Amino acid sequence: MASCAQSERSPSSNISGQTSSEDVQTQSPKLPTGPRPTSGLLLVPGDRIVWLGDSITAAHTYGRYVETFFLLRRPDLNLTFINAGIGGHSALNGLNRLDQDVLSQRPSVVVVNFGMNDAAYPAGSPHAAFIQNIDAIIQRLRQGGVQRIIWVEPTPAHTAGVPAQSKLVDRQRQLERLVSEMRNHPVRSDVIKVQWHDQMKLALNSAASRPDFKLIPDRIHPSAAGHAIMAVEFLRQIGADLEPAVIESTLRNSSLETEFRLAGADTKKVQKIRSTMDRSGGASVDISTALPPVPMLYSADQTKLLGNQSLEALRGLTWRIKGLEQNARYAIQIDGFNIGRYTGAELAKGVDIMPSDVNRKTLSVAAKRELEACTLKDQYVFLNDFECLFDMLYQKDQLRMLMRPDRVRDLPDFGTIRLSTYTNFTNNWIDSSSRAITERALQIRKTPHTLSVIPAR
């Protein structure tokens, strides 16, 4: 069976933030009330989302990408994410632990991701009754008060170069059957289906020309790049705003007039800023409130290789400047660091000012433990912002794994602690950590990020 795979991005394992005794209170969170949206973003402010699945979910990677996206672009939503994935589990296993691992978290939204292990069971096994088990999960979640259920497809097995009679090829055939059954299975309006099986297969084909690049290294568990595709497809299909980050500027006389879309609740709103040119003929603009790029993968080359347009668009940050001398050259800087030199004609068309590829040394375990990316100020500033939040979420997830309720589940009622008390305690501790991360995200949005255009001498 599939087993838990660790994230490739985050090797640290310490708790983020500080928690005081006032933070740990046994009170239920206020869940959203009222009708759920039927178009646009299908999540609402205050949602508590539980990821239920097998080892691919337990890797905490695609879920962490999704959470980081919302922290960067929509921290105002105040979403809480809780991972309830366990390696080797089928939908039947998930059904059997709904009360203790899912409903005890008081979720308003549950993401259900099974199939990889279900496909390995022989016909006639209770674990092989995939649709029946999923239906039972959905019904039980409804009874437990869950407002929205997001049912995602299993990812494919990587069968290239594997003998046709192998068990892996047979598993992939079974996965294809499960995907087909899932797509044809009728559901009510409170269930959203997310389809990413085909997108993963397309990415496998796109990456086939690079044998050194492994999308599914062990043929079952996606790499960080594979999880990035899963995350962006999940976001796209639940209605998240995946518009690329674009800064539009026009040089008129002695001022630079800039506009961009804002991060936050009203992402359609356009901010307009006028900056005065300095004596050198250059001008600067603070884009800290602008819709930011979300670089799920460091490497632009690897991102492009995967062939997923949404993933590629999210990573970039385009600056388009009109009104410059077409043949003159200009230096572009962000927070004082040089990005490159471009002609006025190139800038009028727009240039991607995110690094084309990243040769920065990977942060050490100690640096991640100390959240060093949160204070780095270099030309990879938006990568730093992403890394900071991603590592904070990793630490929160590690805390969550250490505090799983099954550690005290078998304690008798007269034990030193009751399960309900322990669950309330851990839930509030996790919620406190989540609030600290959201505050950090809001702080990042307030930190100046200054773009400058300077005539090259």
Kindly list the characteristics that best describe this protein.
457 residues; alpha/beta; Rossmann fold; 2 domains; five-stranded parallel beta sheet; five-stranded mixed beta sheet; disordered N terminus
Task: Provide a descriptive summary of the structure in words.
This protein is an alpha/beta fold. It has helices at residues 55-58, 62-73, 91-96, 98-102, 130-143, 167-184, 197-206, 224-237, 300-305, 309-315, 344-349, 365-369, 381-402, 419-446, and strands spanning 48-53, 80-85, 109-113, 148-152, 191-194, 245-252, 255-261, 270-276, 283-286, 317-322, 329-334, 337-343, 351-352, 450-455. The chain folds into two domains: 48-237, SGNH hydrolase (Rossmann fold), CATH 3.40.50; 245-292 and 317-353 and 360-457, no CATH class. α2 (62-73) crosses α8, α2 (62-73) packs across α13 (381-402) and α13 (381-402) runs antiparallel to α14. The radius of gyration is 24 Å and the shape is globular.
Layout of secondary structure:
Layout: E1 48-53, H1 55-58, H2 62-73, E2 80-85, H3 91-96, H4 98-102, E3 109-113, H5 130-143, E4 148-152, H6 167-184, E5 191-194, H7 197-206, H8 224-237, E6 245-252, E7 255-261, E8 270-276, E9 283-286, H9 300-305, H10 309-315, E10 317-322, E11 329-334, E12 337-343, H11 344-349, E13 351-352, H12 365-369, H13 381-402, H14 419-446, E14 450-455
Helix pairs in contact: 2-8, 2-13, 13-14
**CATH secondary-structure class of the largest domain:** Alpha Beta
Using the CA coordinates, give the radius of gyration: 24 Å
What is the quaternary state of this protein? single chain
Which percent range describes the beta-strand content?
15-25%
CATH-scheme architecture of the largest domain? 3-Layer(aba) Sandwich
